[in-house]
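Translate sequence into structure tokens.
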Amino acid sequence: MARSGVLYVHVAQAAAQLMAEGHVPTIDRIRAALGGTGSKSTLAPLLKRWKAAHPGTLAQAEQGLPTELVLALKGVYEKVQADAALQVEQTEQRHQAATTVLQEQLQLSAAQRDALASTQEQLIESLAAANERIQTLGDTVQRQEIALASLGSEKVGLEQRLVDRVSEVAALAQQLQQARGQFEHFQAAVAQQRADERQGAEQQHHRQEQQLTALRQRLFAQQTRLGELQAQEQRQSHDNEHLQSTLLTTQGALAQSQSAHEHLLHQFTELQQKHQALEQRHAHDKQCLVEVQTNLAVTQRERSLLAERLTRTESSLTELGTEQQRLLQDNAVLSSQLAELRTQQPNLPSVS
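Result follows.
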């Protein structure tokens, strides 16, 4: 992993490590400790800053510290550095794991959202097709209802014409009956006046026969027309039954289409609810990602605080070394003064 840049904390850590190893920090040693990173123009002011902040530590390094103190300092430094590195590594691992989980969840949410969008488009197309089919069926039903109403009106007209024809046939039959009555009356009159009015009676009978023949032909024509009207009525009745069956079939298909339409609407509503739930889950995932990023920022802040704490610990160790050096000097002075006192006063008891 490449460094983004040499900072003061890197130089301070390398210098402290060199001090713990008993070496005087120099630019070349700092650069070697950093793995050959950083130019001399960058390292020089940072090392100068560190030397200005640790004059006593540098003096002790030049004079040499006791081996026990160096080992103790080295152990404390390594322990603090190991703890800090372990905490940073654990924090980075937790952040990496949380980031991976959130990315997977986001990808899954995006895939589910795309699938729902595709399903929604298909349902919208199906709904449009169903509406178009319903419109077509409605138009067909309307046309069939109009045709049925027209056929009904025509049927009523035919029935009325049939009633008229029946009335006309009844009138003709009545006229025939009257003609027969008149014919019988004429026959009786002719029988009574056969001798005197034979010629007139025969002529009148001939005229009656012609009228009767005409009436019979007219009656036959009316009966033929009546048969045709009855056959036409049967055909109209058959057509009416066929249209009613077609109407029932169309109404059934329309009911099925309406049921399918309601089912599609129900599925569309459920998909909209699922889509809203996924959007809420996506928003929650975003919020979790923001929280993780906030935790990462806090972790980085804690890392900075640990680095500062390490620097303060190093300063404390430097001050302890300075204090120890001062105590050793004071001890040496006291030992010298005690030796002088023993020289001046031989009888002075020794201090154990």
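Note: The domain at 65-334 is CATH 1.10.287 (Helix Hairpins).
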